[in-house]
Every structure is written in C-alpha cells, then in structure tokens.
Write a structure and sequence with these properties.
This protein has about 375 residues and is α/β, with parallel strands linked by helices. It has helices at about 55-70, 75-85, 95-115, 120-125, 140-155, 170-180, 195-205, 225-230, 245-255, 270-280, 300-310; strands at about 1-10, 30-35, 40-45, 130-135, 160, 185-190, 215, 235-240, 260, 285-290, 315-320, 325-330, 330-335, 335-340, 345-350. The chain folds into 2 domains: about 1-115, 2-Layer Sandwich (Enolase-like, domain 1); about 120-350, Enolase-like C-terminal domain (TIM Barrel, Alpha-Beta Barrel).
Length: about 375
C-alpha cells in the first residue's frame, strides 16, 4: 500500500554546451514524484510541467489526487490509473494527464522493485538497449548552433535535434550541412511556429538538407489535415501534444506523421503508453519517445524501459550529455544508446536533490 506521496521541485541545470545554450533557467527546473509504500520501498516519477513552464498547477492537482492514491495498492497500478483518470475526466488533458503521469511512473517503478524486476522486464523486454538522440535547446544565432553540433559530433554523437526559431532554422541547417556533412541524423523542432503556407515552403526548401524529420511545424498542433499534407512533402514528427489513444488512431489512419512522439511524462504515464505502443506497432510505425532535454532523466529512463519492450522501430530523446551525478543509474549509456537495467526504472536520485521555487515563462516564439 502507498504510505506517502511527495512532490519535489528539483533544479538540475540545463547542460552548458559549447557555445552555451539558451533557456538555462527555463529548462533548469523539474517536478519529481516520490511514492513510498508500507514496506519502505520508494518509487520515482516525473512530470513535464509544460503548461506555462510552471509546476504549480500540477502540484495543486497532485495534492488532490494524493487523497486517493495514499492507501492505494501499487500492485493494482492499472486500476489506480483508471480511477485517477475517472476522478479527473472533466479536466480534459494537459495538466490532468501530466499530473497523473508522475504518480503512474512512480507506481510502476515501485511495483517492479517489489517484484525484484526492471520495468522493461515487467512490461515484456524485447531488446537490451535503445537508440538515443541528443536534443539541443536554442542558440542565439545559426553559427553558434552549427558550432555546437560540430562539437557534439566530435564527441561522438551521431543524431542531433535543434530547437531554433522558425526564421533562422533554414540558415542553421544549411551551415551545419556545409560544415559537418550529411553522415549523421539531423532533426529540427519548429515548436508549432508556422501557418500552413509558411510550413509548406519550409518543408520544400529544407528537403535538400536531408532532415530526418521536421517536428511540430504548424500552429495549432492538432491540425490533422495540414500535418497529413506536410508529411507528404517531407517526414513530419509530432505527438507530445496529443494525449488520447484515439488522437493517435486518427493520426495513424490519416498517415499524418512519419515519427510518433508521445511523452510519458505528459500523456498519463506508463499505463496509457502501453496501449499506444500496441496501436503504433499494429501500424508498423516508428516510435520516437519525446522528452524535454532538461536533465530530469527519470522520465527519459522510463521512456528507455518502455522502448526496450517495444517490438518495433524506436528511439529516445535525451539531453546532450551523460546522466548527471545526482542520479544513481544502474544501466549503461553511451553517446548513441541507452541500456536500462536494475530494479524498477533503474534510476533514482541519490543524496540531496537541488531545489528551486522559481518559475520563468518559456517563450518559444
């Protein structure tokens, strides 16, 4: 039985690449969930506080859910998830499913630890490791972004994603391909910044640079018809802003995307993710786990555990670095792959967690 549920406003800094990334403060905050059972075992979860980049609305809902979760049985994790979702169904998605994510991930961690297994084995392990790609924040100009990519390639990374502004991304990828060539995967995240005509023009002009994908090119993110049309020009990736199994079914039926990117820390945790993986596998689709590159790592390793149970094409988004010393990690990681291991998720904070109460609004555009 769950004895306690704790919310932790962590502050693990964003990686300082060379040149230095922007958003060091905005992406330097995390929200962890710590669940302890009556046997003294602890499970860890994480919430991606995407709404206004603020943790406060998620914490408010966690406080309400705690009244139900405390005394719940982690062995019935799916039942607990269904109850939490029914309790909050009129709240829709977003903050609601994000809050549930942190609890659900922690319960799966706890459930697997109690059985002496890893989450990936509990789910049905099919591979020992999964490919990772390095996801960068934003740089103040294209030349700095290109130099950061060159430095990461020199360090051994072979798959890199950018978060540049819509108006300088084309120039950035042009410089990168001229300076560093084409023998590595390069992706761009447009953060829903363009209307359809602007996105269409971008997709056509950027195709010469052989991008692996263009992520979330249009506003609003749930314009299914425009996503389908753009995906016929060049590969489109999206999914972090879809929260329902039925949204993904519509995307798949419409051939709207080439890469599907649900986020375990936003969608409701591991429990709903299992169903989405089954749906994606039925369509033989590529699952590209979304994670904000802000060094939380609990949700990233939750993604890696899920990926190791996925019998299909998959990869995981990560920060451009190894796992920070604040965590104990029981698997293996190199520049291009992650092999989770150990009981539960195989990762947990050690010692004191650096904390922060500050919040700074993140402005993509």
């Amino acid at each position: 039985m769950i004895k306690s549920l704790e919310k932790i406003k962590a502050s693990i800094p964003l990686t300082k690449t060379e040149p230095e990334q922007m958003w060091l403060e905005e992406w330097g905050n995390q929200l962890f969930v710590r669940a302890e059972n009556n046997n003294g075992k602890v499970g860890w979860g994480e919430i991606l506080a995407a709404a206004g980049n603020s943790r406060e609305p998620y914490i408010a809902l966690l406080d309400l859910l705690a009244d139900y979760v405390i005394s719940a049985d982690e062995n019935n994790v799916r039942e607990v998830w269904n109850s939490m979702r029914r309790l909050t169904f009129s709240g829709g998605y977003g903050i609601t499913t994000g809050s549930i994510s942190g609890i659900d991930i922690a319960l799966w961690d706890l459930l697997s630890k109690e059985s002496g297994s890893s989450v990936s084995r509990t789910l049905g392990k099919r591979r020992s490791s999964v490919d990772r790609y390095a996801s960068l924040s934003r740089y103040s100009d294209p030349t700095k972004a290109a130099l950061a990519v060159k430095n990461l390639l020199s360090a051994g990374y072979r798959s890199i994603k950018l978060h540049q502004s819509w108006f300088d991304t084309l120039e950035t990828v042009k410089i990168i391909r001229e300076d560093s060539g084409y023998d590595f995967d390069l992706m761009v995240d447009m953060n829903c910044s363009m209307d359809f005509e602007t996105a269409r023009d971008f997709m056509i002009k950027s195709s010469r640079y052989e991008l692996k994908w263009v992520e979330e090119p249009i506003w609003p993110p749930d314009d299914f018809d425009s996503l389908r049309k753009l995906n016929s020009i060049a590969p489109v990736a999206a999914g972090e802003n879809f929260f329902s199994l039925f949204d993904f079914k519509r995307l798949l039926e419409g051939d709207c995307l080439s890469y599907y990117q649900p986020d375990v820390a936003k969608i409701g945790g591991i429990t709903p993710f299992i169903e989405i993986m089954g749906l994606l596998k039925a369509y033989n689709s590529t699952l590209a786990f979304h994670n904000r590159p802000h060094n939380g790592w609990i949700s990233i390793i939750a993604s890696a555990n899920l990926a190791c149970s996925y019998d299909g094409k998959t990869l995981v988004e990560t920060p451009p670095n190894e796992i920070p010393e604040i965590f104990s990690f029981y698997g293996k990681i190199d520049k291009n792959s992650i092999a989770p291991d150990g009981a539960g998720l195989g990762i947990e904070p050690k010692g004191e967690i650096p904390l922060s109460t500050s919040t700074k609004m993140l402005k993509f555009h």
